[in-house]
Amino acid sequence: MTIAKDFTLAELIIVAAAEAWRGDGELFVTGIGPVPRIAAGLAKMTFAPGIQLTDGEAFLVETPVPLGPRGDFKPRYSGWMPYSRVFDSVWSGQRHAMVTPVQVDRYGQANISALGPDFRKPKVQMLGVRGFPGNSICHKNSMFLPNHNKRTFVEGEVDVVASVGFNPKNWPEGVKPAADLGLIVTDLCVFDFNGPDHAAQVLSLHPGVTFEQVQEATGFPLLRAAGMKVTEAPTEEQLAIIRTLDPHGVRTTVLKGNPPGIRAAA
Known about the structure:
- The chain is of the alpha/beta class.
- It is built from 6 helices and 14 strands.
- The strands form 4 sheets. Strands 1-5-10-11-12-13-14 form a 7-stranded mixed beta sheet, with helices on both faces. The chain has a 3-stranded antiparallel beta sheet with strand order 2-3-4. A two-stranded antiparallel ribbon has the order 6-7.
- The protein is globular, with a radius of gyration of 18 Å.
């Protein structure tokens, strides 16, 4: 493997996000949004061939479907995946999704529903809770947040708890759900909620980012994980796969200005 010298922050994040599915085995995987979807495809084409991806319609595919116009690409189907089987996978815990909420708090709770102190009179009405409540109690979820700041990682609780985390007062009947949180990948770092008492702990800092910068951009305390490191750069082989999965460069539109993977020191 040859470490790449020229890569974008989006490509660095895709490689880091793919790690969310390492060791998952034969799980149904959903990457919601361009970066999570490319990351899931990268995982399947490298270290996690057993994860199950769909064509976005009703079939499982052996080769991830590229983003955008497909040209002469022909999917290699490996099975049927109608809604009934999708929900069988969801409810039985045999799914691992990567989602992009608008707010996340110190408990790992997430919000995609509405902004404002009173959900009955929201300042901003968004999607509603959608499938977040059921997903968060049924199966593992990871997250991608493209803008790491205190509006996203809020002080206190999220405005609407669309997705439960580690706050016991919001557990169904006071019982911790069997589902779990995986990696939280942002434009500054990678962290999880596996610290003491499910505290947020930083696993890796993207090149050129300091722990202090991440803490300053976060509304709740962070810990340094044992072995905290610099996020690994993509390899040339990984970049080639990413280009195959995203031939039209949709990834370049995710982060403002499509910044380089190694940012200049402040």
